[in-house]
Amino acid sequence: MPFDAVLCDFYDVIGYIDLTDHDQRERACGLAAGTTEKIAFAPGLARSAALGQITVEQWTDAITDGLSALAGSAEVAGELARGFVGAGCRIDEEVADLLRQVRRRVPVVLVSNSTAQIETVLEATGLDRAFDAVVTSARVGVAKPDRRIYEAAAREAGAAVDRCLFVDDRAANVAAAVELGMTGVVYGGPADLAAALSPLLE
């Protein structure tokens, strides 16, 4: 086999956040589309949440504070913040199925720059047992493209870094994995993943 483990990103590869309901609530409050997202992903705040320096609840509270003046009340701001943080997730079943097939042969580890909220997302979508391990920036305290998160994922997989296939939609994250010796795939769609995994699907 060409790889002893597959390390895969989650958001925009396997799962896609569904903000349809949230966007409707924003419009109903007279806010411009993306207002909540802009506050939530302000560099300092987003980084603190992604690295686990603040909890999901503290992140939600900070978003609420940022929205309060814009939304007209703390109550409405809180509803918007909770709706954003707890938004549903659409799973690409074709991608999930490819990973299920590969997992019969090698470990599959999820590697995500995300808050602890991803654990709730995985449970809600029935994917909480779909991976051999879940490595998140919030848990390990470092984020892609820091080499330490890749090394942590390889350890969880029980594989040498040069025997890992790494899949991510961000070129910079893939480049960092390749620099470590991994085989990297910049994800653009299920066909990219199927091609990379083909030796393990035969």
- At the first level of CATH, the class of the largest domain is Alpha Beta
**What general form does the structure show?**
elongated
Number of domains: 2
The percentage of residues in β strands lies in 5-15%
- Poorly predicted sequence stretches spanning 5 or more consecutive residues: none
Q: Quote the CATH topology of the largest domain.
A: Rossmann fold
Strand order of the largest sheet: 5-4-1-6-7
Task: List SSEs in N-to-C order.
Answer: EEHHHHHEHEHEHHEHEH
CATH superfamily of the largest domain: HAD superfamily/HAD-like
Tell me about the largest β-sheet.
Answer: 5 strands, parallel
Number of helices: 11
Q: In the CATH classification, which architecture of the largest domain applies?
A: 3-Layer(aba) Sandwich
Share of residues in helices: 40-55%
- Please state the average pLDDT score: 95
Structural class computed from helices and strand pairing = alpha/beta
The rounded distance between the terminal residues' Cα atoms is: 10 Å
Q: Rg to the nearest angstrom?
A: 18 Å
Number of strands: 7
Compact overview of the structure:
With 202 residues, the chain is α/β, with parallel strands linked by helices. It is 53% helix and 15% strand. The chain folds into 2 domains: 5-16 and 89-201, HAD superfamily/HAD-like (Rossmann fold); 20-86, no CATH class.
